[in-house]
Amino acid sequence: MSKSPEREHPQKAFGWAARDKSGVLSPFNFSIRVNGDNDITIKVLYCGICHTDLHQIKNEWGNSVYPMVPGHEIVGMVTEVGKNVTKVKVGEKAGVGCFVGSCGSCHSCADDLENYCTKQILTYNARYHDGTPTYGGYSDNLVVEEHFVIRFPENLPLDAAAPLLCAGITVFSPMKYYGLCKPGMSFGVVGLGGLGHVAVKFAKAFGMKVTVISTSLSKKKEAIEHLGADSFLISRDQEEMQAAIGTMDGIIDTVSAFHPLLPLILLLKNHRKLVMVGAPNKPLELPISPLLFGRKLVGGSGMGEIKETQEMIDFAAKHNITADIEVIPMDYVNTAMERLTKGDVKYRFVIDVANTLTP
């Protein structure tokens, strides 16, 4: 007979959990393992709300296990370290992103690409090496193996930097991998949401000429005046799109809704790349002819490895890059999820866990 969440481990913990596919979150008592020799215990201060959290609590991807404590944009203070730990010290700030474990022995792990390990252990809604559930950052404390912890520079505001641990690395990693990070490049960002607005900021820090591509004219002023984009294309405006054909060195597509790819591929110069980081729930149609006759590439990317996540955080600190956020108390989280469903947030909710999570 399996133990209750409160009795699986010696240390008590508290958070908010979804109990079923209704997705409604409520107070939840559980437990976490004792800090081991290679572990770090973190008191959670802030946790961003990612769209993945919404998918998972409602079982929209069909793999949810309840009770579920979401949250994989976690920042906090180190309260305990194992005797073998050298990355951080007690009292320092640290972060945890989308995963907390991997096999450590496959080709991906050997190449520091833990995010592509087939035995990757997600920060929540997964099973740890000992078979017990992983619980995320909508909670007071967590214990994480040192390798999967990110050091946080002192000058980064923790609340606004928390979303970088998912949204930030999700766009930074493909920009680096596909070479879409060179000064002077003409770079398109499709979608101006949690991922897109951060992509604009990184692209500008890389010195690129940035065009935001959106279905919504209402986002033009925000994109140019606030985020610093150089230009704006309305993807539904055929004349605008026609005039921009063959002008871009690269495009990152952050949209998770069903949408046509051909107009985006046509925007690329020959021999250039369209990179997908959104995850539509229906297959997209991929036209082959423009790829053949323009030698263009359509690629993808999922999250980013630990070393690269640290590089991204350090880069963000150097260039003062943070997410645009709305800080909320824990008891507002269900309302936040309803608003997120409607796209009613600029651009990321972040839970003030330390000051508002109370038993």
Broad CATH class of the largest domain: Alpha Beta
Which consecutive residue ranges, at least 5 long each, have pLDDT under 50? Answer: none
Q: Any idea what the CATH architecture of the largest domain is? A: Alpha-Beta Complex
Number of structural domains: 2
Compressed to H and E, one letter per element, the order equals: EEEHEEEHEEEHHEHEHEHEHEHEHEHEH
Query: In whole angstroms, how far apart are the ends?
Result: 28 Å
CA radius of gyration is: 20 Å
Q: Give the CA-based shape.
A: globular
**Helicity, as a percent range:** 25-40%
CATH superfamily of the largest domain: Medium-chain alcohol dehydrogenases, catalytic domain
Structural class by helix and strand composition: alpha/beta
Give me the count of strands.
17
List the helices and strands and how they pair.
Layout: E1 11-18, E2 25-32, E3 39-49, H1 51-57, E4 74-81, E5 93-96, E6 99-101, H2 107-110, E7 121-122, E8 141-145, E9 150-151, H3 158-161, H4 167-177, E10 186-190, H5 194-205, E11 209-214, H6 220-226, E12 231-234, H7 238-243, E13 248-253, H8 262-267, E14 268-276, H9 289-294, E15 297-300, H10 306-319, E16 325-328, H11 333-341, E17 348-352, H12 353-356
Parallel strand pairs: 10-11, 10-13, 11-12, 13-14, 14-15, 16-17
Antiparallel strand pairs: 1-2, 3-4, 3-8, 3-17, 4-5, 5-9, 6-7
